[in-house]
Each structure stands twice: as structure tokens, then as C-alpha cells.
Specification:
With 273 residues, this protein is of the alpha+beta class. The protein folds into two domains: 173 residues, Transcription factor LuxR-like, autoinducer-binding domain (Beta-Lactamase), CATH 3.30.450; 85 residues, Orthogonal Bundle (Arc Repressor Mutant, subunit A). The chain contains 14 helices and five strands. A five-stranded antiparallel beta sheet has the order 2-1-5-4-3, sandwiched between helices. Helix 13 packs antiparallel against helix 14. The protein is elongated, with a radius of gyration of 20 Å. It starts with a helix and ends with a helix. The relative contact order is 0.14. Pfam families: GerE.
């Protein structure tokens, strides 16, 4: 960063500190980070236990918010590599989506039937640890018309990590709400965990969940420590039991299963399932 740019950036930081806590400061944070590099959209989700993601802040227009936030919260988040990284207690820091995406993520149902609709080309995110085991993920998104984040840009963003952590934690303290232990979020998780339980074995359910999340047969075999040939046999049996002909029909079937819980019908209508 040139001296002139550094002076402008530090002045922006001083302005950021003067803003009220909560949304005003989060908006200021997004504008400050855009001084480092171009970002098309920001969204801050908090993942807390079995609750569905809570959107604390975003910069989307109303029409895009329906896809990026509303649709995401109804169920697709269960297939999101960032969400899954949080469930594995991913350490804080700046991470690229591609670091967590399984080998067939860009051919999988989550990408083809949901993520692709967002028009995103790349996503990086700051992971922030919060109180009581909750995690915040501040995503920085670029559309398909923008280039990928460069190494220099990522290094500069990493320099901003301490500020991001402080602003996000303060916003969480300001906006945190007490949510019921068992509500729609619990039902969505239960619907996913029990998907296909009426006809599939426990092993077949494991395989279905991995396929939905973008794993290839080879990756499924590695994850479950079984042979690729065994996975192939399981897939054939799964398709026969579920009455489908290919992996391409799995997500639609999953969405219809979610329709059994409150809010699932809305997502099913949106996706045309």
C-alpha cells in the first residue's frame, strides 16, 4: 500500500471508531475494508448451536437479500462449506470458501441449485469466535464479473483482522437476542439429519448427506473409509429406494422433505421444486 493510500486507510479507521456500535459501525467496517480491495457484497452471519444462521448485517438490495439471506436460512445453509467449517470449530482467521469446499462442490447440488443463483465467483470470510461457542462469519463476496481475490489483497485483508474481530464482537453484544432452544432451526436440522430415514439405512443416509454437500464418490469413499466400488453400489440402491434416477434430483427431494417443517414450503416454491 502506498503512503497516500495508507494515510487514507488510517483516517478511515479513525472514522470507523467514531461510529455508533451495531449496524452503523458494521456498515463503516464494510466501507473501510473496500478501501483495501473491491468487494461486491458483505454479509455477517452468526452460527449459534442448532439455531439457523442469524443475519446481523448485509449490504444486499432487497431482491438479492431473498436469495443470499432468506432462502439460505430456510435450509441450504446446512450444505454451506463455511457453516460446516463452523460446526468443526474452525479457528478464527481469514479463509477462502474453496479451502473448505469438497472436491465436487462446483458440480454438486448446493452449488448448481442454490449457490450458482447468487451470481458469485468467489467468497472469502473472516471467522470470529464469540461467547458461548457461537461463531460469526463475515463474508466478502465478488460476483462473476469480478476477478478472484489476489494474494496481495488477501494479505492486506489479514492486516485488518484485529479490527474486524473487535467490531463484530461489539455488534454481537449489542444485537444478541435470546432464542428458543427448539424452534424452526431445530426442525430444519432434524429434517436434514433424518432425510431418507423412512427408506434408507444409516450408512446410506451418511452417503446422501455427503453427496448433497458436493463430495464425489471417491471423496465419499475416503470420508467413510470404504471402497469406491462399495459407494457405487450404495448409490445405486439409494436412487432405487428414493425413486430417483440421478444425483441431480437429490436436492429437490431434500427441499420437499423440508416442506414438512414450517418454512420449507416457502423455499420449495421459490426454487420451483
Amino acid at each position: 500500500m502506498r503512503h497516500k493510500d495508507l494515510k487514507h486507510w488510517t483516517a478511515g479507521f479513525a472514522h470507523l471508531l467514531s461510529l455508533p456500535n451495531g449496524r452503523p459501525r458494521l456498515l463503516g467496517l464494510s466501507q473501510w475494508l473496500k478501501q483495501i480491495c473491491a468487494v461486491d457484497h458483505f454479509v455477517l452471519f452468526v452460527y449459534e448451536g442448532n439455531h439457523r444462521p442469524l443475519a446481523l448485517f448485509d449490504t444486499f438490495a432487497a431482491d438479492k437479500r431473498k436469495i443470499y439471506v432468506d432462502d439460505y436460512q430456510v435450509g441450504p445453509y446446512l450444505l454451506d462449506p463455511f457453516y460446516l467449517a463452523c460446526t468443526r470449530n474452525q479457528p478464527p482467521g481469514l479463509w477462502r470458501l474453496r479451502q473448505f469446499a469438497p472436491d465436487h462442490f462446483y458440480l454438486g447440488e448446493y452449488y448448481l441449485n442454490y449457490y450458482q443463483l447468487t451470481g458469485l465467483a468467489e467468497e472469502v470470510a473472516f471467522f470470529v469466535d464469540l461467547a458461548d461457542g457461537a461463531k460469526a462469519v463475515l463474508s466478502l463476496m465478488r460476483s462473476t464479473t469480478s476477478p478472484a481475490f489476489s494474494r496481495d489483497e488477501l494479505q492486506m485483508l489479514e492486516c485488518a483482522e484485529a479490527v474486524v474481530i473487535e467490531v463484530v464482537r461489539e455488534a454481537w453484544q449489542e444485537c444478541r437476542v435470546q432464542r428458543p432452544a427448539q424452534d424452526l432451526d431445530h426442525k430444519i436440522r432434524a429434517a436434514f439429519d433424518g432425510f431418507g430415514a423412512h427408506s434408507l439405512t444409516a450408512r446410506e443416509q451418511e452417503i446422501v448427506q455427503l453427496l448433497l454437500r458436493g463430495h464425489s464418490s471417491a471423496s465419499v469413499a475416503e470420508q467413510l473409509e470404504i471402497s469406491p466400488g462399495t459407494v457405487k453400489i450404495h448409490r445405486k440402491n439409494i436412487y432405487a429406494k428414493l425413486g430417483i434416477g440421478s444425483q441431480a434430483e437429490l436436492l429437490g427431494l431434500f427441499i420437499r422433505e423440508l416442506a414438512g417443517s414450517e418454512g420449507g414450503e416457502e423455499l420449495m416454491l421459490r426454487t420451483g421444486s
